[in-house]
Amino acid sequence: MAVMEPNDFDPDNEAGDLSRHGSIRKVLHSLVGTDSLLGKSAKMLDRPKSKGTSLDPDDYSLSFKEYTIISEYNLVVSRHIPGLYVIPSANSELLWFGVIFIRSGVYRGGIFRFILQIPEEFPDNVHPSLVFETKVFHPSVDIETLELNLSTVFNNWSRNINHIWQVLDYARNIFYHIPAKARTNKLAAHLYEFEREEYLSQAMKCVQDSQSDVYKSLETDDAHYLKFSQYDETIHGETLRALKKFKTCSKYNGHSSGLSWVKRGSLKPCSANSYF
Question: Which InterPro entries match (predicted)?
């Protein structure tokens, strides 16, 4: 998983008080990918308060909420979801920018940018929302709002069971395996079930549009908004060759992970839903 590198933040700095210290970008770099997430969070909570200030219970609530989202992002990074890139906004930890590259199947070649909105109530009761930036012709995506229907899978959101990485993995997975009961876009659902050739034609057009729109961007001053530029050999050539070399070297050394096993007393393979 590729992520942008946010600003450094020193959790051992004793100069500040217990109040909120800004967005997730200030602590993300020092916490993601380490084994000391809880330890460093505790250090921040244990800072002595500045003179003349009083402790507010809401400060603890805001801090723990931010640490929860940091933990969720850490989980996303650790999952290494193929073809998925995501980063929290520089202005709000509740807004994430991402893009999904589709490498095979009906939507092969698609480049689908999206925005993930985390609700204020997170992580209790309500699942995040995911809206694509470019038109996506798919039974699970609203044709007008471009929002992915997550209610069918994450209707009863629980902090002990559900995580943001599952939402992102599901968003990627819908392009490889069309959900049988998806009816958010009724036209797409009808074509997929009864007029498959027309559906494939619409899906191909959707992919082509995503490729032509990849260099377009929203009007935003957010420093973490994902932007794409045209290929430049002098800038990107060396990286491209390194990636191709790595792909060749690891062609036969790849591995996949999942929940699967052989049923006891037989040779029948079994598997579990990866989202729960």
Answer: Ub_conjugating_enzyme, UBC, UBQ-conjugating_enzyme/RWD
* Beta strand extents in 60-172 (DSSP E only): 84-88, 95-101, 111-117, 129-132
Q: What is the rounded distance in angstroms from the CA atom of residue 31 to the CA atom of residue 97? A: 19
Residue 127 has which token pair? 């699942």
The H or E element spanning position 60 is helix 57-79
Closest to 207 (Cα-Cα) out of 120, 108, 121, 126: 108
Give me 196's structure tokens: 């498959």
pTM for the full predicted model = 0.68
Q: How far apart, in Å, are the Cα atoms of 67 and each of 30, 110, 172, 225? A: 12, 33, 26, 22
What b/e readout covers 253-273, taking b as 16+ CB neighbours within 10 angstroms? eeeeeeeeeeeeeeeeeeeee
- The long-range contacts involving 22-26, CB below 8 angstroms and separated by at least 24 positions, are 23/88, 23/89, 23/90, 23/91, 23/92, 23/93, 24/66, 24/69, 24/70, 24/73, 24/88, 24/93, 25/88, 25/90, 25/224
Q: What's the CA dihedral at 231, 81, 270, 108 to 10 degrees?
A: -20
